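Changelog note: in this version the structure field was regenerated for every chain. One regenerated record is shown below for reference.
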Amino acid sequence: MLDLELLSQLVAFNKYKTISETAEHLLITQPSVSRNLKKLEEQLGVKLFNRSVNRISLTETGKLAAKEAEALLEASDNFLTTVQNFDQRNNQLAISTVLPGPLLWLMRHYQTLDCNYNFSFHEQLLEPEQIVQELLTLKSKIVITTEEVNDDRLESFYLGAEKILVRIDQFNPLASKTSVTFKELERLSFLVYQDIGPWRQLTEKQIPNAKFLYQKDIESLDELTKYSNFPVFRSNLTIASQAHEEKDDRVPVAIDDPNNRIDFYATYLKEKSKSLRPLLKQISQAFSKL
């Protein structure tokens, strides 16, 4: 069976004419190119190259082989594109996450994305140790993670960063400030959604002397927020997804602190890279504007 990678190197050699230029274009070593072209010649059982001291060129047969190889590679790409497009139109794109903000945004805005996927969302947050199994068992095609996953079978694509602000009662002295640090929030008591993934550990670490009044669901959190003056956290993503009803007199104050950031990635099977990357680029561009 013909190796398409070998054919692609033949096509590249036909275009660039030398082993060194071909190797530079393909980002591989010159000895690798030489071995692979010789291997292809042996597989085909014909003479593809004229070789002399410090020079190699295509025979007439080699030129024909390069032309046919280019057509075959194009047909292969068309085949792959056709099958993948069919799969996109007819297959669910299940997405899970380890933190809620990016998923909340996607749940609200996925219909604005230019793609043919049928989206489904798993709202129950995953633990980091569940990510690999979630993808390998095809329960999800994408898991939103807070770091690149170290597994040869997976690939991670950077999507963006989430940052939080604090909404403070208008009569609190901090409400008059344009920004605060985590340290300035010490000794306050906060109403907080319970299932916030890595944000829970981050805020508890950065504001060690604060009290966090965790609520199990967003509806309960918003209800308590309306009838109390406890400060609450919001993020650039939860605001953009309109996850909360803001019916109070609290003032939004930015948190200007180097620790106020969680980067997040889309992690997926490497074999899905070509079909998913156009969509992920769209999502990344949308997040960069928030």
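Spot check on this record: The longest helix spans residues 60-90. The chain has three domains: 4-88, 91-161+262-287, 164-255.
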